[in-house]
Design goal:
Layout lengths: L4 E6 L5 H10 L12 E3 L5 E6 L4 H6 L5 E5 H7 L4 E5 L5 E8 L14 E4 L2 H10 L5 E4 L15 E6 L3 H5 L2 E10 L1 E5 L5 H21 L1
Parallel strand pairs: 1-3, 1-4, 7-8, 7-9
Antiparallel strand pairs: 2-3, 4-11, 5-11, 6-9, 6-10
The protein binds 1-O-pyrophosphono-5-O-phosphono-alpha-D-ribofuranose (PRP) and magnesium ion (MG).
The site of magnesium ion has 5 residues, from loops.
Catalytic activity: 1-(5-phospho-beta-D-ribosyl)-ATP + diphosphate = 5-phospho-alpha-D-ribose 1-diphosphate + ATP
Keywords: Amino-acid biosynthesis, ATP-binding, Cytoplasm, Glycosyltransferase, Histidine biosynthesis, Magnesium, Metal-binding, Nucleotide-binding, Transferase
Main location: cytoplasm
Length: 213
């Protein structure tokens, strides 16, 4: 059997559509049997694995997938050994701190001793440590913006894109921790044969990105 490069892509979520679109713009056509978790490109030695976003860095680190399209925010949070090869210019967002809109904010001291809800505990902890802040971290896996409203926390640390989820929940953004976008990541030890396929893919992706600028 000839070698195929395995790429992990979000199974569901905001990056999936644009991830498949960029492959298509690279001239790569994927046979997409609906609900299949594995698919093959027809005209390029590529196999697509549809995985949960938060699992992707670990799968790439462990070589289950050779490469992936994933948000930088997830790469930073998961602290796995993967190499970021190329930022892809879509799914731009930021990881930010937000508090109830009527609270007075007078700097980072605000967070001292406060209870903060997040799905990004490692990134938040690093930020708090850097700023010598002692806050309590409460981890929830989604709908983080509801936490202050239901008395679960004083503030939050979560992704912001348009800002509409913050607005709808009566919160305001006060500090950005990390800016993020979709990126192509790679396992640190891929075979020479796979590296050749990857070089071809990267060449095409960079041409597509250059054409957009
Ligand atoms: C994401 C993210 C924010 C929101 C940001 O949540 O966690 O809540 O989108 O986007 P906005 O600034 O454009 O409103 P998502 O809708 O994916 O749901 P989840 O957090 O429950 O997974
Ligand atoms: Mg959310």
């Amino acid at each position: 059997m000839s070698t195929r490069l395995k790429i992990a892509i979000q199974k569901s979520g905001r990056l999936q559509e644009d991830s498949l679109r960029i492959l298509k713009e690279c001239g790569i056509y994927i046979d997409n049997g609906k609900d299949q978790l594995k698919a093959r490109a027809q005209n390029f030695p590529l196999e697509v694995l549809y995985l949960r976003n938060s699992d992707i860095p670990e799968y790439v680190q462990d070589g289950i997938a050779d490469i992936a399209i994933v948000g930088e925010n997830v790469v930073v949070e998961k602290q796995k050994k993967v190499q970021i090869l190329q930022k892809l210019g879509f799914s731009k967002c930021r990881l930010a701190m937000a508090i109830p809109k009527d609270d007075e904010y007078n700097g980072l001291e605000y967070f001292q001793g406060k209870k903060l809800a997040t799905s990004y505990p490692n990134s938040l902890k690093a930020f708090l440590d850097e700023n010598n802040l002692n806050s309590e971290i409460h981890v929830i896996s989604g709908s983080v913006e509801i936490a202050p409203n239901i008395g679960l926390s004083d503030g939050i640390c979560d992704l912001v894109s348009s800002g509409s989820t913050l607005f709808k929940n009566g919160l305001k953004e006060v500090v950005e921790i990390l800016s993020s976008q979709a990126c192509l990541v790679c396992n640190e030890n891929i075979s020479e044969e796979k590296q050749a396929i990857l070089n071809d893919l990267l060449f095409r992706m960079r041409a597509v990105l250059a054409a957009k600028n």
